[in-house]
Each structure stands twice: as C-alpha cells, then as structure tokens.
Amino acid sequence: MYELKVEGAFEAAHQIKDYPGKCARLHGHNWVVQAVVRGCELDSLGMLIDFKTVKALLGEVLERFDHRYLNELAPFSEGVNPTAEQLARIIYEALAAKAPFAETAAVRLAAITVWESPKSSVTYTPE
Ligand SMILES: Nc1nc2c(c(=O)[nH]1)N=C([C@H](O)[C@H](O)COP(=O)(O)OP(=O)(O)OP(=O)(O)O)CN2
Ligand SMILES: [Zn+2]
C-alpha cells in the first residue's frame, strides 16, 4: 500500500454562528488542506498518481473558497456553520467526485485534513 500526501491552501474569512466566544465574530484564516491518497498499484513511471495531478485537482476544489467570506457560499449560506469539520467533508466529497478518484478504486482518496491554524486541524475520512 502506498500513501501519498499533497497540500493546498486558501485564505478566507468566516464566522461561527452561535459560537460562545470570539469565533462568532468575523475573522479570517490561512487554511491549509492536505489530501491523502492510497493505492497499491504503480503506473509505468513507478507512481501511484502524479503529485501534480492531485495538486491541480485539489487546487480546483479550493479555488471556490479562496479570498471569500465562507458564510456567503453554499451550503454555509443555508445555515451550515463553516467549521473545519464541515470544510473537510465538503472538500473530501468534491475531490472524491473528480477523476481519477471517481473512476477507479485503484487510487482512493483516503482523507482530507483542514488546518485552521498550525495547531488546530480536523481530518475527515469516509466511514
Ligand atoms: N472543532 C472546532 N473547533 C473550533 C473551530 C472549528 O472549526 N472546529 N473553529 C473555531 C474558530 O474558527 C476559531 O477561529 C479557531 O479557534 P482557535 O483554534 O481557538 O484559534 P485561535 O487562533 O483564536 O486560538 P487562541 O488559542 O484562542 O489564540 C473555534 N473552534
Ligand atoms: Zn475561525
């Protein structure tokens, strides 16, 4: 089994509605996102999947969040709080829907980790 990890990032503002503290106020983070990909078979180049491919796909997913006020974007505009947990799941689902993850079980998106700060992160893995 090979496990490949790629990181992306975006900058965005948010507020956690009903949070009992300062995070209820508008503030921003430099979000860092890590995708973990697993599989057993290597291609003719000896790669599970090219880092560049995963980086580009992750970049496409993160683009919609970059330099945005997250609470204005769906599904956060519909009452879902833009927590690191919700972001990790939403990013996972968007990336997993892209080829090659959607097309074959040989290269599997295993997890997405979202860091709000260097010391605070959430990892989503589908059960
Ligand atoms: N489980 C979660 N807890 C919190 C989340 C979250 O998404 N999931 N989010 C927040 C706020 O967004 C907050 O901005 C981050 O809080 P915190 O890590 O405390 O960040 P600070 O840099 O402000 O840390 P201090 O130690 O207070 O300086 C809160 N919790
Ligand atoms: Zn925050």
From TrEMBL:
Pfam (any one): PTPS
Pathway per its UniProt entry is: Purine metabolism; 7-cyano-7-deazaguanine biosynthesis
Q: What is its EC number?
A: 4.-.-.-
Q: Which residues form the active site?
A: 23 (proton acceptor), 67 (charge relay system), 116 (charge relay system)
Q: Which UniProt keywords apply?
A: Lyase, Metal-binding, Queuosine biosynthesis, Zinc
How the cofactor is bound: the record states: Binds 1 zinc ion per subunit.
Note the InterPro entries from the entry: 6-PTP_synth/QueD, 6-PTP_synth/QueD_sf
Q: The organism sits in which domain of life? A: Bacteria
Cofactor(s) essential for the protein: Zn(2+)
Name residues in a coiled coil: none
Catalyzed reactions per annotation: 7,8-dihydroneopterin 3'-triphosphate + H2O = 6-carboxy-5,6,7,8-tetrahydropterin + triphosphate + acetaldehyde + 2 H(+)
Under SUPFAM superfamilies, the record lists: Tetrahydrobiopterin biosynthesis enzymes-like
What's one GO BP annotation on this UniProt entry? tRNA queuosine(34) biosynthetic process
- A GO term for molecular function: metal ion binding
The family line of this record is: Belongs to the PTPS family. QueD subfamily.
Protein name, per record: 6-carboxy-5,6,7,8-tetrahydropterin synthase
Which species expresses this protein natively? Selenomonas bovis
Its taxonomic path starts at:
Bacteria, Bacillati, Bacillota, Negativicutes, Selenomonadales
